[in-house]
Write a structure and sequence with these properties.
Elements: H1 11-33, E1 41-45, H2 52-66, E2 72-76, E3 99-102, H3 117-131, E4 137-141, H4 158-162, H5 166-171, E5 173-177, E6 183-186, E7 201-203, E8 208-214, E9 218-222, E10 233-236, E11 238-241, E12 258-262, H6 270-273, H7 292-300, H8 326-348
Parallel strand pairs: 1-2, 1-3, 3-4, 4-12
Antiparallel strand pairs: 5-8, 6-7, 6-9, 8-10, 9-11, 11-12
Helix pairs in contact: 1-8
């Protein structure tokens, strides 16, 4: 059968045009097949601290993540008294949590060891959970060890963080506290910073700082240690390790979870969490974190686009970050780039 031609339009051009339209629809289908981010499952781990300060921090931390629309948020507030078990890391609907948040509060005036046997066991459990990716991401807001332990001693999760990826293992060093009521600034030079742009200034009280941190992993840096031009390692207060770089095995396959770690929980105290913003010259600096921390975390864990899925830049291996079915997004982008010159002529000429 002979194809009918449109007046003044040869048959071969008509078929090419139809072919281009089909290809365009296929491209749109690839894009549409990439799933939207479902409401996340979140677990918040806190301590059962008493007193107004402890309750404010713990309640603010839990409420920050419970404010996420549609999120399912579970919380366990017995880190210092009850041992965690594997079932605690399984949501009611099965599977694994998208995010585990750790924000314990310890009594800074305690004269006895605050590391109970249960807390020590839970720290080891959490370390193993990160290394084996029992959840997709962990956001740690841990306090420095209190009296009678020295504030200059390494934080509880220091070894977990330092050993999580090669760059930190090679050069990172704990250098103590970073000051009182000092702000820290988002390192916009880090490839992971975009998701945290809504939290450009992060307020702290007595927080830990680390030297020799690769600039990509240094998410926040203290005002007292600005980043010098051309630096490859810096002093950092908050660190970030994406899943593709977390606990690589002998074949360089990542086994660990995405990891955000800062060693101070005062981001959730009423001064920095609820108080209206104030000028940097006013101390303590009111940074008004309410709603900003959860939003940044939600951005970071978003499949396909979030910072948790971004591998460290490597000029010899420019890998495309893959989330759930992320290959569809990559395929769509590649097809669109290659096909656009042809599609433009076939569809619109």
């Amino acid at each position: 059968m002979q194809s009918k031609e449109m007046p003044g339009f040869p048959a071969w051009k008509l078929w090419n045009r139809r072919l281009g339209q089909c290809f365009y629809l296929l491209l749109l289908g690839c894009i549409a097949a990439t799933p939207a981010f479902a409401a996340p499952n979140i677990l918040v781990l806190t301590t059962n601290g008493t007193g107004a300060a402890a309750k404010n921090v713990q309640d603010n931390c839990k409420n920050e993540f419970k404010s996420i629309t549609g999120a399912t948020v579970d919380d366990i507030d017995t880190l210092t008294t009850n041992n965690l078990i594997a079932a605690d890391f399984t949501p009611a609907g099965g599977g694994s949590y998208d995010l585990v948040v750790i924000c314990p509060y310890y009594n800074p005036n305690s004269t006895s060891s605050i590391d109970s046997a249960e807390l020590q066991a839970n720290i080891k459990f959490i370390e193993n959970a990160v290394k084996t990716r029992m959840a997709k991401a962990f956001f740690i807001f841990d306090e420095p060890p209190g009296p009678p332990q020295s504030l200059s001693s390494p934080p509880r999760f220091y070894a977990l963080l330092k050993n999580s990826t090669a760059g930190l293992s090679a050069s990172m060093d704990n250098i103590g506290t970073g000051g009182t009521d000092q702000t820290t600034n988002l390192n916009t030079g880090s490839p992971y910073s975009t998701d945290f742009s809504g939290l450009a200034i992060y307020g702290n009280s007595s927080f830990r700082i680390f030297s020799g941190v690769p600039i990509d992993n240094a998410l926040y840096t203290p005002e007292s240690h600005p980043i010098a031009p051309g630096s490859t390692t810096v002093v950092a207060s908050t660190l970030f390790v994406p899943q593709p770089d977390s606990y690589l095995d002998a074949k360089n396959v990542p086994q660990g979870a995405c990891l955000f770690a800062t060693f101070d929980v005062s981001a959730f105290d009423n001064t920095r969490y609820n108080a209206p913003p104030s000028p940097p010259a006013q101390q303590p600096y009111h940074t008004h974190h309410a709603g900003k921390i959860a939003a940044a975390a939600l951005n970071a864990i978003k499949p396909g686009t979030g910072a948790c899925g971004i591998a460290a830049p490597d000029p010899l291996n420019m890998a495309v970050p893959m989330g759930s079915k992320g290959w569809l997004s990559a395929l769509a982008a590649l097809l669109g780039f290659l096909a656009w010159p042809v599609l433009r002529k076939r569809l619109f000429v």
